[in-house]
UniProtKB/TrEMBL annotation:
The keyword Ion transport does not apply. Residues 480-573 form the STAS domain. The keyword Transmembrane applies. This is STAS domain-containing protein.
Amino acid sequence: MDTEEGEPMAARGRQSDGWRAALARRLPVLRWARAYDRSTAVADLIAGITLGLMLVPQSIAYASLANLPVQYGLYSAFIGTMLYVFLGTVKEVSIGPTSLMALLTLQTCRGLPIDFVILLTFLSGCVVLLMGLLRLGFLVELISPSVTSGFTSATAVIITVAQIKGLLGLSFVAESLHENLTLIVQNWRHVRTPDCLLSAVCCTVLLILRKLKDLNVGPKRHRLKKTLWLVSIARNALVVFAASTFAYCTYNPERPLLKLSGRVEPGLPVIGLPPFSTTLGNRTVGFVEMVQELGSGVVMLPLVMVLANIAIAKAFSEGGRVDATQEMVTLGLCNMAGGLVRAMPTCGAFTRSAVSHSSGVRTPAAGLYSGIITLLALNFLTQYFFFIPKACLSSVLICAVIFMVDVSVVRLWRHDRGELAVAALTFCVGVWRSVELAVLCGALAGLAATHLALLRAPLHLHAVKSTRGEAVRARPTRALLYLNCERFATRLRAAARGRRLVLLDCGVLAMLDFAAAKTLERLIEEFKEGDQLLIFYNASTDVVRKLERIEGVDARALRTRTVQTALDAVAAPPAPSDPPGGEDAALLDKEPRLPGDANV
């Protein structure tokens, strides 16, 4: 064995530690609950209250974005955060409504009764749970960061344009970005000045408060810095409270000054199974017809849900290590439970995780406190949600999502224009068609770009001198696959013309498929007929196993590292225990026959 290559190490798998360890992996609360003390509880309480102040107005705004009554946002906010306490593995993650989930829900269930939203939540949970149980987390790896950047930016643009009507006090139903812009222009004469002024004030205050936490107040004024940070984090709640108070004080039932959210159903949701049949128009539709109406959203929404949640978990977990299976099982159960309390689809949100992290959260128990705040809001404050101005909710949404546009992606122009093209395609499809289609097109474009890179994999050719004479050294890069094996063979034939020795350096060859193996067999046979010798050397352990199965390959040279040692290995007399291929030594002293020779 080559001393440089060393001894192969056994794969480190998860050792069987018994049912207690397995239970702790699937119920992570058992790991941290034993060491839970008073100081940890205080830290989680502060983080949970801070998160709750952010979660309540966010949930109301996201329900509005999904074209749902605002209480459905709050139904979605408490169940996921509370379940994650017991099942979650990353302390910063908070399961609840997000702008992405709200937009996908709107696009999937537009024009359908709320029962379809509830069923979508439950089915999404079932799909994600199944993905977790089948360990299909690797599917997320097929979606490149460029695709994620493209559809996230597209989501931000779509939401921003869709909420402009709220800023202007307009009311209409539109299904696309183009239709939104067209209807805004057509209804311009109906723009309401009070709503516009309130929107301007809300947006200005939100953006100013957002920067408040970044003010440099000096290291000795710690209490002031903490106060500024808390005000900045709670800016959505403060602005919604101030705008609602103003609307309450100026409310005139006969001539309302502002467009308001309207009546909100008070109290906690009724727990029950999701609707497996409902009324659509004047007919009753069953479960199968409901799923058909939901269409591809039943698959695409869970995929995007998992993608977003795993990305957030990786960003905030220690060392970037995430138990993807457990996270998918947890997310699936949270959405299945959400279907029992009439919630909309939910997943983690980067903004909430960032707030939890900066709040000093220590365990997932912080979600328990934020969930309690949401339940209190549902039970005691719903009568006041009537007075939340729609212009204020639109301002909250726009000021939250405009920073999701990934401007830094333009730097790919210098590094990888192919990835930039994938991001641009995903963005354009998302803006002009739908986010689900954008994810699908982006993933396919990313795979196509990878295949194109393999198709055009460089083949480095060099003329080298040895004790056996001049030879051609060919070094294929990346992989030899069905995509590029014929192109490789054509170039190798042209380079080997008139030379007796051809050496294939497999040092950077990572993959070799069946089609490439058959092509190499044909090349070996062609070269032998022309009194030429094709020698494979410097192969990795995985590639050696595949090359040894190819008929005609002299296995003695496969593990050699240089041209000379490869030639010496082939020239040596074959030992009785050597694999087939020793007859190649006789070809070393022959001259190659060219295509023009009479004997060919």
